[in-house]
Amino acid sequence: MHISTAEKVTKEEWHSRAADLRPETRLFIDGEFVESVQRKKFENINPANGEVITEMARGTEEDINLAVAAARRAYRSGIWSRMAPRERMDVLAKFASLIEDHGQELALLDTLDMGKSITEMITVDVPFSAHCFQYFAETIDKIEGAVTNTASDAFHYISREPLGVVAAIVPWNYPLMMAAWKIAPALAAGNTVVLKPAEQSPMSALLLARLFVEAGGPPGVLNVVNGFGEDAGRALGLHMDVAKVGFTGSTEVGKLMMVYAGQSNMKKVTTECGGKSPQIILADVADLDTAAKYAVNGIYGNQGEVCSAGSRILVEQSIYGEFLARFTHYAKDLFVPGDPLDPATTMGPLVSKEQQSRVLGYIDKGKQEGATLNFGGGQPSDFDQGYYVEPTLFSDVNRKMIIANEEIFGPVAAVIPVSGPEEAVDIANDSDFGLAAGIWTSDLNTAHRLARDIEAGIIWVNCYDHGDMTQPWGGFKQSGQGRDKCFDAVLQHTQTKSVWFNLGS
Asked: Which domains occur in the chain, in start order?
């Protein structure tokens, strides 16, 4: 069912499809679906109602070894790495087309897995994932080496070659799209891949693997192992035949991946580990209504389960009260918790009971520290079967408070008053993270100065969360290193080789 017709599907139809769903539950290794070696299973829970969707095969180190061996054989055979660039481009382009063709099924799988609204899936995640593969398909014949200027008796060239087997470890907040961000540049560069989806959201990755083979992808080039981080993820990080780990997730686990690399084969590691991103709203903002709407979307979109969520909102004192009033007005209209399979819903549940408890715990800390709770702060009374948290706003927050420093990963906004641009930059940089930041001002000099001074990998001016595939995605400090999206993501999956010919006299 093509993604282009998805907006015509009703709530009742989505629920009917969910009831009839028979998702793939096995692992995908060497071009086939297989059971895990130990036949272990884990329950896949629907966060909207706490019910079991199905039991998934739980891969362990033994399954990782099989998947890496298959990927290594495929890489060394040259069936993908030495495929003519135009042919590899055709496979990825067809893959992108198949994602669109199966877009409604992919949307349903992720909505059931992690509670994201079905409307967001069909308007954002699925089309952007397909576009990601289209973009990276077009980069394949743009990967170039160089010939250097040497003495007349020598000829020297530098080529770019794929790394080998790449491990892609992706989070649960954007299961399909994060998988696309990781595996598309790796495949475009000629690598083979072992993908480990988050245990909370494994279903769409298995359909992706099947579609890759349907598109003409050779067996062993893309493998998927469901499993838990402490065994499957760790096994990938420590594996001696994995050449690179691309990881998105918590800072704690990102650091472990770097440790695992040092304990094993010094594999390359790129990490994207979240943030505590500031939105700075200055008194000379051209349109306070627009800024308030963006601020609302920046923290409550995807239930606040976004690595770049604008969770610290720094507002200049002279417009502080007016901003709070407008933010409150728009939040109550734009984000109302509801059934994620209802196309009208703008906010679904959090991904798990554990995540719900974690977020509610932070809300309690905010109250205890003396922040003012303007609205929200609990579980919606009509949705006590699922893992919901109301959109929540704290004002009168100061930089010392826990809710102003730690990543909550939920729909909790902390509004901090600032005296002006200088204090805003000081507070913005007073963080272990540095993924993204927003600046709202009508003064061009102020905008450039703040963009220069803020320690973050992504800066938005008079907007938030805008961009396309040319935009490097990644952060400073403990938000990680390396970049997703963009052409540089392909180059990060290659290594250079220097070849020097002695031509004689």
From this structure: 8-273+481-497 (3.40.605.10), 278-468 (3.40.309.10)
CB 470 within 8 A of CB 483: no
Cα-based distances in Å from 261 to 59, 243, 250, 256, 437:
21, 9, 17, 9, 30
Catalogue the E-assigned strands of 9-57: 27-29, 32-34, 41-46, 51-57
- Tell me if residue 307 is catalytic: yes
Residues 107, 123: Cα–Cα separation, whole Å: 10
Alpha carbons 298 and 311: distance in angstroms, whole number: 8
DSSP code per residue over 211-255: HHHHTTPPTTSEEE--B-IIIIIHHHHH-TT--EEEEES-HHHHH
**How distant, in Å, are the alpha carbons of 62, 176, 350 from that of 56?**
16, 17, 20
**In this structure, what DSSP letter does residue 347 have?**
B
Mean pLDDT of 15-26: 96
Check if the beta carbon of residue 134 is closer than 8 Å to that of residue 469. no
Helix axes 126-139, 103-114, angle to 10 degrees: 120
Give residue for tokens 């990102």: 254
Whether the CB-CB separation of 42 and 71 falls below 8 Å is answered with no
Is 422 among the catalytic positions? Answer: no
Nearest to 178 by CA among 146, 200, 163: 200
In DSSP terms, which residues pair with 440 in a beta bridge? Answer: 281
Place of tokens 């397909």: 130
Segment 147-187, tens digit of pLDDT: 999 999 999 999 999 999 999 999 999 999 999 999 999 99
User: How do 372-375 and 392-395 pair as beta strands?
Assistant: antiparallel
Looking only at the bridges linking them, the beta strands covering 192-196 and 165-169 are: parallel
C-alpha span between 410 and 456 (Å, rounded): 21
d(CA 247, CA 244) in angstroms, rounded, equals: 10
Task: Give the closest residue to 398 by CA, choosing from 382, 418, 380.
Answer: 418
Catalytic annotation, pick one of 132, 273, 307, 486? 307
Among residues 24, 272, 305, 407, the one annotated as catalytic is 272
Q: Which residue has the tokens 């198949």?
A: 98
User: In 3-state terms, what secondary structure has residue 154?
Assistant: strand
pLDDT digits (tens, 9 = 90+) for 319-362: 999 999 999 999 999 999 999 999 999 999 999 999 999 999 99
